[in-house]
Specification:
Blueprint (H helix, E strand, L loop, with lengths): L3 H8 L13 E7 L6 H9 L1 H11 L3 E6 L6 H5 L3 H15 L5 E5 L11 E3 H13 L4 H7 E4 L6 E4 L2 H4 L10 H34 L5 H5 L5 H11 L8 E8 L15 E7 L2 E8 L1 H17 L5 E6 L11 H25 L7 H19 L7 H12 L2 E2 L4 H10 L12 H19 L3 E4 L14 H5 L7 E3 L2 E4 L6 H15 L4 E6 L9 H15 L14 H13 L7 E6 L20 E2 L2 E7 L6 H8 L6 E3 L5 H14 L6 H11 L5 H11 L17 H16 L1 H13 L6 H10 L1 H7 L15 H10 L4 E6 L2 E6 L2 H11 L4 H14 L9 E4 L3 E4 L12 E3 L2 E2 L1 H13 L3 H9 L2 H10 L2 H18 L5 H23 L3 H10 L7 H16 L5 E3 L11 E6 L10 H5 L3 E4 L4 E6 L8 E6 L5 E7 L5 E5 L6 E8 L2 E8 L14 E4 L3 E6 L2 E7 L6 E8 L8 E4 L6 E4 ...
Parallel strand pairs: 1-2, 1-3, 3-7, 7-10, 12-76, 14-18, 14-19, 15-16, 16-18, 80-87
Antiparallel strand pairs: 4-6, 5-6, 8-9, 11-13, 13-17, 20-21, 22-23, 24-25, 26-86, 27-57, 28-29, 29-30, 30-31, 32-33, 33-34, 35-36, 36-37, 37-38, 39-40, 40-41, 41-42, 43-44, 44-45, 45-46, 47-48, 48-49, 49-50, 51-52, 52-53, 53-54, 55-56, 56-57, 58-59, 59-60, 60-61, 62-63, 63-64, 64-65, 66-67, 67-68, ...
Helix pairs in contact: 3-13, 5-11, 6-9, 11-12, 14-20, 20-21, 23-25, 25-26, 26-27, 26-31, 27-31, 27-32, 32-33, 33-36, 34-37, 35-36, 36-37, 37-38, 38-39
Length: 1789
Amino acid sequence: MGDEATLKRILNGYFEELPRQEPTAVRVFFSSTFTDMTVEKNYMMKHSVSKIREYCFKKGLDFQIVDYCLGVKDEASVDHSTTDLILEEVEVCKKTSTGPYFVLFLGDKYGLRSLPSQIEATEYKTLYRIAARLDYDTILLNKWYQKDDNAEPAVFCLQPIIDILPNYNNEDPGKSSQSLRDKDRKEWDKISEKLMTCLRDSADKALEENRITKDQHLKYFYSVLEAEALAGIVKSDNTRNRVLAYFRTFGDLNKDDAIAGKFTDLEKKEIYPGQAEVSNKIDHEAKTLRENLNRKVKSVLLPNAMKKDILYWTSNGKDPKNEDHKVYLINLDKHFERSIINMIDNTMKPTSSNEDDLIVEENLHHLLFGQKEIENFCGREEILEEIRIRMSDCHGNQDDEKSIQNKNNENNNCLKAKSKEDEYFETVKEGMKESGVECKEKGVIYTYGDIDMDEDSDPEKNQKLELIKKCDLKEYCRPVIVYGESGSGKTSIMAKVAQLSKSWFPGSSTIIRFLGTSVGSSTLRGVLCSIIRQICKISNITLPSFLDLDGDFIYVTRFFESLLNRYESSQKLVILLDSINQLSSHDHAYLMNWLPLKLPKNIHLVVSMLPKANECLQNIQNRFPFQLQFIEVPFLPLDAADLVITKICQHKNRRVTKPQKRHLLQLFGKCGKPLYVKVLTVRALHWRSFTDVKDFKVGPTVHAAINLFFDELEKRYGTVVVEKCFGFLSACKEGLSHAELEDLLSLDDETLQNIYLSHLPPDPDNIRIPSSVMSQLIKDTNEYMTTLKSGGKNVIRWYHRQFEETSKKRYLKNNNEASLHSTLVDYFSGTWYNKSKPLELTQKKKVCYSTSKRGVPLQPLYYSPSQCNVRKLIELPYHLIKCHMFKCFHDDIACSFQWLYAKCKFVSVSSMIEDLKMALAEMDAAGDIDNTVIYNDIKTVHQMLSVGSEDIRKDNSHLAIQILGQLGSSFYRSSMLRNLVEETKEWSESCNIALLLPLSQCLNSPDGYMNFLIRAQVWMPSGGDVWKQYGEMMHLDESNGMLTVVEVLKDRSHDYLSRFDTNDNWSTVFSQKIDYKDTTSIHHPSNSRFIILRHSEKDGHYDKLIKSDTLAEVNIPDQTHCITASDKYVVYSTMNKVSVCIIGENLVAMSVIKSLELDGGQKVQHLLLSPDSRYLVVIFTLCVYVLSPETLEILYTDKADSSDTIYIPTHPTIAHITENNILFYKGIGVGRHNSICMFDLEKSKELHAMCHSQKSPPKFISHHPSHKYSAIVTGKRWFIHDCENGKLVSECSPDHCDNGVTCLQLFGSDNIFAVTTPSKVKMNDITIFYCGNINSPLQVVVPFKSLKGHSKEINQLILTKDENTLYSASQDCTIRVWNFEKVITEFHAKFLKQDDMFDSERALEDYNSQIQVCSTNAVRISCDSKTVLLGKSNGHFTVKDLSTGECIHEQDYQKSINMLITSKSGKEIILIPETENDIIILNSRTYEVKQRLTVDFPVHSAAEENDKLVVGRQGFLSFETEGKIFSIKDGSMIKGFQQKCFNSLTEVAINSTGTKVVSHIDAFPLVIPVNGDGTHYKNLALQHSDECMTICSGVNVSPDDKYAFSISPDGAVRVIKMTGEYAMKLDTKSSVTAAAFSPDSKYIVSCGFKTIYVWNLSQRTLSFKLKKHDDFVNTVKFDHSGRYLLTSSTDKKLILWDLRRRVTVSSFVADCQLEAVDLSQDAKNVVFVPKDIADVAILRSNKLLASMIEGKRRLPITPTLVDAQAMALSFSSQKLRQREATRIGCQVM
């Protein structure tokens, strides 16, 4: 890319001295005459070219041969532009090719020598005067050469033949037309001969007189071939590894042969005046020129770049059938193939995936694009100055500059290394010092594990939240928003601002992105991540290793804003984002909520957009009400247009005459847009100074001008060619490379028919479009194209929006679009690779090529194991869907593991999900109802990837785990899904990745009831406050598919409003901080554009009004206790005062029209507006008012008696107004407070009251969609009433709601259903009831379905209006999205009979079976690693085969089995019940009961060694703690004991001889001898105990019986000798959650927050840390060798570590918390309990992992990952830290 200085200039945004972008194509120009080298070139095209192309494909390159011997249109010959076109193409190849660009074929023929198309004016005048002296026909010369003053410098150009001889190109098939054509052609031959003779003789004379140079002289004599060779070789600066030359001569050429003229130059002889034919005499002048050319070429090329051959003549000239000629062709072909490949290898730079290189490459693309945009920039000084002023404006308090500078310095980049530790670490150090002193006094060794000040190991320090904290900016700049109509010149203005910013803000760095012009700038995430990395690169900042920019997008936006806020205050930064509307809709880019609204005063941000596209402008205006920051781009002034025309012409060395310019400016007046004047001027570049432009057609709009431009192209290149070329470009997804476009046109028969009208294909076996045709067409549209990288290749597509729209409208119409997509499918599928595709020419030339091929490449999914065909991954799914080839999409993509894995790995999992989503949407739109299996399979895969996307994104190999875990090892719903599972298994076993593979389903099934899981901080404290207990924390707006959620204390200090898009896989739209906390509910009044947030305070509550579209708060001047709103009014209350506001166009501005103080009590409790805004209901504690909101006239009052004192707050869901204006509210006063009152607002009439119990007032109410029934929830029951008469019609049995209901919602159309969250099933399950037919409700409702998944109390349910989707929010901080349509469909199929009779018995039986599903409490792998043992809550003991998962034994022991232990000898299995009962000892071989041990207390801890079993009961009080020691051989009790101390026997362990038990006093380990008195040990423990009233979370004894430890939430591992002495204290910042001794007793491995600590016992130090978990590590298990370690965490990850090499070898992410986990002794199997999915999950090692564990394979670690003290895997995403000067080890993360 360049040297360090160049890279720095690119990163800092300088437009000057930019290098070119690296090409991704090898584009080779074939230079030869038209006839003599055809056989060689055809042979190469048929053989070596296809091989080279395949080789290039594997390198990620396109390979193209450009041969202008074919494809030059007749029009080019007629206007004499052929040579110019060819030389332009040579330059294009030279600039754009990687490696070789030119191959010369030079035989015995010099080739066509044509008249020069133009002669410089001074040179022409010299020749003219000499021609006159020589008595040549100067009148003829002046007739054919006319002066063009529009060229710079002026030239005399040869007139197009048809301008003087109009019938020269007459294609009319009539005889008279043919005669006229022949006549004109003969006339031209005669004229051209005369002109050539005149010019050559004049040139000879001029050279003789030294009036022209040799180079000027040569152009009147040289052939097109020499012109090519001079440009491509002789005059080229660098030919090494870039050009080849082949010389071939005939040793005995027969000049008398009829075909000799094809292979050598022969003189012409005159038959009669004006008519000549070829003679049999050698043209010696041509021969001399050829020989001179030969010498010139050889003089500049190295020997290895040339090949010389001599052939002998045959009757066919060159004859491939001749043996000698055949050998010649084979050798030539091999030499060409070998040479080209070597050149490519020698010049191709290695493809870099380095992040820094990618940033530089992306920035260079945008700088080059901007450089092109400002080439023709003129004027616009006023708008540029306005932008500069707005960028420079500083806002905020004008405080002392010095204090501001100090403040900014304090807030400086927290990502940089800190020179001083913060106060927090000072505190940690002080505590560490105190503990060290205390331990030293006791003679105890103290070691601190976090002396490296690793914040990430501390649960109290959330580094991710620290990084996104905003600075308090006292002075700040605001972003500038530039907007204007399409084609108004926004992009060029933004480019100019980028250039001028260097002078506006000296020393500034500039970051510019022209959005949509590259793949990296097409999505908002890509843009922000790219800018973040560039800022870090500019500022020399290293991004923290835990920062995942590909993860939570909302976090990325916050980090972006925080990074800007903390940018170095002494540096200046300018960021420009052009054309926001060009971003894809992903990540909700158009909402503009990601745009920072306040910036440090040294940072300047400008964005541009269209005013109406995608509502970008409207959305930012809603968020950002500062009109001065919005700058509209006006139409281009006339004087600026004049300058633009001049500049465009100058750039092309052209100009226009004054009359022509006046004409252009007159036309410009029709539109006034810069793009319009550009289109006009580009067309005007072809004008000569003598061109009459009166009839120049142009439309009144940009689109019309573009259409006329397309008309010109169609006239020039043929309608079919242009239609197909632009059709393919418009139909593709991300653009097409030149080679792809050439291939596609070659596959299209209609295009080939149009190309081969006047001549036949040169090679009938390999028919392709001549590359020159497409090259010329693309060259003519290059001004309006952009080049971007897609799949590693440079592709082209329209840049200007109007060109794309016009092209699609014009060329994608009727059946043409389907045909184009079908051809694209064939191409990217490789359908026609090396296959015959017959072509029949039926127009002028009528020939059938039945066996011809098209020379298109193979399109494998992989070029090599590490290189994928990314272009295929991107394009093929899109075109399959577009042409409705759903079965192919289903078979080859959706149900193909190879495809899914490649797409997820080389593109992204989100892109694969988008493909599947698009297929489903297209099938829905097409009404393809017959392919239900295909549709359901695609839907299943879509759901599977959506649920597992985060895991797959972090590790692509986990796609296999997700498929096997979600679908199971045998998914039988469809054959293709079964094939997908089998293919996944095969890949998993053969891949070079270590995997833990699920043996059966252990993750939530995509065919299950849960669609998705949203992680959100949805939490509400329980308690007496009814608002907090029942507040609603989410709101669903079905009109736009947005779910708004209140996230409580998300950053530990503030609540957040988060919004999720239900139409986009529930992606996070944005998450916005609320400037207050204690939010208790969110409410959306019907027919309103607002949402209301209710907050709780100690002395009451208050409401906030929020705009529902932007979540911006509406400022209301008074303190508001209650708010409500409709489409017309906003009503709020302050104490007992009610105020009404009318909503204006600006929703933020409210005007109070009326206020009224009401006599109802201290303050208003609730406000309601009717849906039609005619009635306002005001609810006080003991009074209800109905008012007119327009006049505040009181229409009705319901007051309690003055003696009533009962106060029960009215919940919002009780106070409700229906669509037909019926008011429901809780009764007022004594005797009525337990009832629900109904009041007709229209008739001002009380209807009736619904009441159940004087003791249990109603909590909330739910209405059926028909408004015919309402369900009322009381303290412990719920009932359904008929709203017409208030009578009770249904009730829920106490058996199903005896402890109350937290949520309830009625639904259904013809039937009545209820969805609830009752306490009967632990408050965590959702229960669905059938309540009867709408005309005949059941007296007692019947439950039929229980949905499991939440682990904590459910706070809220939302059912969509179509009743297909249910949302449940829980205190487990998840929102689950349920497939409710499936629930109801199954209900109808299972429980409703044909006559709609309800089978209640079956429904209840089915429901009871669901809620009685037992759980697995304990799981253990047998000592021989052959079986897995399960202890279940229903008392069942189950044994399963570890290799197959089959049940081989099951026995019911009646009582819930709480613990399960295998004896160290492996001969016994110990089952310990949950409550006090017998402990059962089983024979591990026969599973027969050997012993029953009687205990009279519930066992909380147990351990076994040497056939001794110790059990204990924990207790907080001293008399509650007791334990027993048994012999499991004979069942005898060896010892019973009580620990008369607090907090003991929570954990127990026993030494290997069974002589000593270890428990604890508080958090200190205590040795208890099995035989004898333990007073001595107890005294030692009490003497050394350093913590009081601290719980112990684990104890253990080392295998060598020398040490024991206890662990505690205080962060310490306390190690004692088995003699009772306190040996060492191993301390950490985090709570210690698990620990274990290594089998060799050398190490203790302890676990805390995210971190695993490995302590060396002999050295008494920390050896190293291991990190890959994201939360507390709860389990640690060793295999028998001690080499492999299994850890599990609250983050739901299982990780297998190689402890010797200190690396992770495999991992697994579960769907649930991992409460029971075990590792087999051979480390090849892991088991855990997947809650609510299966009784056990078995994970087995794939072949690679098994081989690694056996020591047969070794996971390689690259040298770059080796540190002086430790090693780490690159995929751990963690940074290796240096070891401190102390003996504390470094971290392996």
